[in-house]
Design brief:
591 residues, alpha/beta, three-stranded mixed beta sheet
């Protein structure tokens, strides 16, 4: 493939290499040198032929999308303006082009693909007859026809077989049901047949993510057990504990790959810098508001008896979810407890309401359900108010040195998700929005006997903690990712409904090869089971399940429509009305 993908260039930058040029060290070539070497080898290879040189390029990728030719085609076209580019599909039919080096096999296959919708030439008919007359070649023809006219007839499993395979209780993490939303067949292969990729002893992105998660868990517990808090955490303690936390996480037997080479040991040292930056940013975010972390790495299993994680199915079965919430933050006063759920991500994950609607991103909302019910059990005398669900991206970003460095870094590390639009919630999450409006006895307000203070949002503020901004008049900007109490409750109910529906489909035997496609995203892109299902959109019976791209307003309308079910008499019924335990678990003032 020209040009070759040169990768990320390794540990050293081109500037580092230039500095080390005067030493006796032998260094790999820079990106610039690699580019020149590639051009040299291209020139060398292309001058080898003595009679003819053929260059070819694809017009479509594996998914049928148009792709541009290599830059080399453009270079050659400029050097030789009179050169002719021949479209292979429009080649003149003659003996040389037909027979080629494969005895006409390629030409025969193209004709079979055209038949019967397209016209085939007399050349093709003659070649086809020739193959039929030879007993060995006829077997090839039979296989080609079988493949060319193959139609996928996926019927799935019978409900009885599905229940024998999965059991009456579907156990697993939220990721399992996101997998089903992505492609039912991929779910069947992974969770039904338990097919797994061959385990290789290599460092994957998941390993680095686990290292960060383990280190943050160790650090948080160390901070809690020390009797200290985030506000009074000194820089010396922070750096020392980060060092200890990373070392402890890396020395865990499950992370022993980090000690297998010097390169991986370097990654551990680099992780210390990123973790230190993460702790610094988390401290800034926490001390910018009134919420305090109350729980770290909270594991939820069916044994906790949380009805939000034990979802009943119509045929008597259950979905029993388990998972781990990275952090639960709360703000508590005399009447209520506000709760914020934070999930750490080492990859570039962002909250997408459309993905939630299609069942592709259920985790945060399910975790909010669990956290709300979990806190309600221990705070029975207070109302539990969801404040937000947020992702924190673990990173050490590079920013412009001419800007306010600290502010720029915090902006890059701002959490992403959705926040309750309640004024007090926003102010408790980030005090920079706080503005006190005073009403004194001189006002025209009725029944005002003494001075009162009313909280309102300060205008012209862009938070470095949460995805919220205000206009000059203090109103929320269009860019703010905020939702009402009713919308928070709707999301909580909706994701439960989605998981329930998926559970019903799984136990009904849905194993269809229906990978989703949403704009430029497709389930097949990174799927390890592509060779198992044989999915090909050009074959009849195979097709992407194209998900609709909706506006936020359309999404909310659809969510409310699906939650506003009617019974046979036309009366509204609530979600999970048939599960008394579920409703009991949700009591606590969420609505």
């Amino acid at each position: 493939i020209v040009p070759k993908n040169s990768g990320d260039g390794g540990i050293l930058s081109d500037l580092d290499r230039e500095v080390l040029l005067g030493s006796d060290l032998e260094l790999a070539p820079t990106k610039r040198q690699v580019a020149y070497m590639e051009r040299f080898y291209l020139y060398w290879i292309m001058t080898k032929p003595s009679e003819k040189l053929y260059l070819s390029y694809s017009k479509l990728d594996l998914e049928g999308n148009n792709i541009r030719p290599s830059y080399l085609i453009g270079v050659i076209s400029k050097l030789f303006p009179s050169i002719e580019i021949i479209d292979e599909e429009r080649l003149v039919e003659d003996e040389v082009n037909i027979l080629g080096s494969d005895r006409g096999m390629d030409y025969l296959i193209k004709g079979i693909r055209k038949y019967p919708s397209g016209q085939v030439s007399d050349y093709w008919k003659e070649l086809y007859s020739l193959y039929l007359k030879d007993e060995k070649l006829k077997k090839i023809i039979d296989n080609l026809i079988s493949g060319a006219f193959f139609t996928n007839h996926e019927i799935g499993l019978k409900a009885e077989i599905a229940k024998d395979l999965y059991g009456n209780e579907l156990l697993g993490s939220v990721t399992r049901f996101e997998q089903f939303a992505s492609c039912p067949f991929a779910h069947y292969v992974k969770y039904g047949l338990n097919l797994q990729e061959r385990v290789e002893y290599s460092l994957e992105a998941l390993d680095i993510g686990n290292l960060f998660h383990d280190a943050l868990e160790i650090f948080s517990k160390r901070l809690h057990n020390s009797g200290n808090d985030w506000e009074n955490l000194s820089e010396e303690d922070q750096q020392a504990w980060v060092e200890e936390s990373i070392n402890e996480a890396a020395n865990n037997p499950k992370n022993d790959i980090f000690s297998s080479s010097k390169r991986y040991e370097y990654i551990v040292n680099r992780s210390k810098r990123i973790t230190n930056r993460t702790i610094w940013a988390i401290k800034k975010q926490i001390t910018s508001g009134d919420f305090i972390p109350s729980h770290f790495e909270v594991y939820f299993t069916p044994d906790r008896n949380l009805s939000s994680l034990n979802i009943p199915l119509s045929q008597g079965g259950f979905v029993k979810l388990n998972g781990r919430i990275d952090r639960i933050d709360i703000y508590e006063d005399d009447n209520q407890v506000m709760v914020r759920v934070v999930d750490y991500k080492s990859g570039k994950t962002s909250f997408d309401l459309l993905s939630v609607y299609h069942g592709l991103q259920l985790q945060l909302a399910i975790y909010l359900n669990a956290a709300t019910e979990f806190l309600n059990k221990s705070k029975k005398d207070k109302t539990i108010k969801p404040a937000g669900i947020l992702y924190y991206h673990i990173d050490d970003p590079i920013v412009d040195k001419n800007a306010d460095i600290e502010a720029s870094i915090l902006k890059e590390l701002k959490m992403d998700g959705i926040v309750n639009e309640d004024v007090e919630v926003i102010i408790r999450l980030d005090n920079s929005f706080k503005e006190v409006y005073k009403i004194d006895s001189d006002t025209d307000e009725e029944d005002v006997e003494e001075e009162k203070e009313i909280l309102r949002l300060k205008g012209g503020v862009s938070s470095s903690v949460i995805p919220v901004k205000t206009n000059k008049d203090g109103s929320l900007s269009k860019d703010s990712k905020v939702v009402s109490d009713e919308e928070v409750s709707a999301i909580e109910d909706y994701v439960t409904l989605v998981v329930k529906d998926f559970g019903e489909e799984i136990l009904a035997g849905n194993t269809r090869v229906e990978p989703y496609q949403l704009n430029d995203l497709a389930a097949c892109k990174y799927c390890p089971y592509n060779s198992v299902c044989g999915f090909d959109p050009k074959i009849e019976g195979f097709a992407y399940r194209k998900l609709s791209s909706l506006s936020d307003k359309e999404i909310w309308d659809e969510i409310h429509n699906k939650l506003g079910k009617k019974d046979s008499g036309g009366n509204s019924i609530s979600l999970n009305e048939d599960n008394e335990a579920y409703e009991d678990g949700k009591k606590g003032g969420k609505k």
